């Protein structure tokens, strides 16, 4: 019964925080306090809201803390931002290797991540890209970028359409 009442208290704080967010004028500390209390009461749906709040207020160290806790790799834009914070030392020490790891995790969903990886490598900020022999090679990432750009440019979404594309336009991807 205690867990239910704790969770209910967490929901209450979440609803108060949501109400504050929907108002035109809210106090940062009040909003942060409600979100943190919601989390403390086992309402774990607030991590994303905390990350957004800290990001909006340029509190990068706190945003990184909640990013790590939440493991928010589904939000590509957020991952790109956090990786860039590692590159620039915003809210943390400069850590190119950590930025590269983050870019690798989203590389197949983000052209920007691939370009950042290539740039870090070419600027000698990282010694290798990834741990496996396949993706440690800079040419692998350059070819991946080229093929992604070709697919996007020609609107090809699935591998099953490649033979059709090659036959129709007499071009290879």
Describe this structure in words.
- This protein is an all-alpha fold.
- It has a domain at 67-156.
- It has nine helices and no strands.
- Helix 2 (28-40) runs antiparallel to helix 3 (47-56), helix 3 runs antiparallel to helix 4 (60-70) and helix 5 (76-88) runs antiparallel to helix 6.
- The longest helix has 21 residues, at 2-22.
Output the keywords.
9 helices; mainly alpha; single chain; disordered C terminus; 173 residues
Percent of residues in beta strands: under 5%
Task: Report the sheet with the most strands, covering strand number, pairing sense and barrel closure.
Answer: none
Level of helix content?
55-70%
Q: What is the average per-residue confidence, as pLDDT, rounded to a whole number?
A: 83
End-to-end separation in angstroms reads: 60 Å
- The total beta strand count reads 0
Regions with little confidence, pLDDT below 50 for 5+ residues: 158-173
Number of helices: 9
Which radius of gyration do the C-alpha atoms yield? Answer: 21 Å
Q: What string gives the helices and strands in order?
A: HHHHHHHHH
Instruction: Describe the global form.
Output: elongated
Task: Classify the secondary structure makeup into a structural class.
Answer: mainly alpha
Quick summary:
The protein is an all-alpha fold. It has a domain of 90 residues.
Write the layout of secondary structure elements.
Elements (H helix, E strand, L loop, with lengths): L1 H21 L5 H13 L6 H10 L3 H11 L5 H13 L7 H11 L4 H12 L15 H17 L7 H8 L4
Helix pairs in contact: 1-2, 2-3, 3-4, 5-6, 6-7, 7-8
């Amino acid at each position: 019964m205690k867990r239910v009442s704790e969770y209910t208290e967490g929901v209450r704080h979440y609803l108060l925080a949501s109400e504050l967010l929907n108002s035109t004028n809210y106090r940062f500390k009040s909003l942060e306090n409600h979100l943190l209390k919601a989390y403390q009461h086992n309402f774990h749906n607030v991590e994303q809201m905390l990350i957004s709040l800290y990001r909006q207020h340029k509190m990068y160290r706190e945003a990184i803390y909640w990013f790590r806790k939440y493991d928010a790799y589904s939000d590509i834009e957020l991952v790109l931002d956090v990786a860039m914070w590692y590159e620039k030392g915003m809210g943390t020490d400069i850590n190119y290797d950590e930025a590269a790891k983050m870019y690798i995790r989203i590389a197949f969903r983000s052209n920007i991540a691939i370009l950042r990886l290539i740039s870090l490598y070419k600027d000698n900020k990282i010694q290798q890209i990834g741990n496996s022999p396949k993706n440690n090679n800079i040419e692998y990432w350059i070819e991946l970028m080229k093929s992604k750009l070709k697919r996007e440019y020609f609107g090809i979404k699935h591998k099953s359409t490649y033979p059709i594309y090659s036959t129709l336009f007499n071009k290879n991807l």
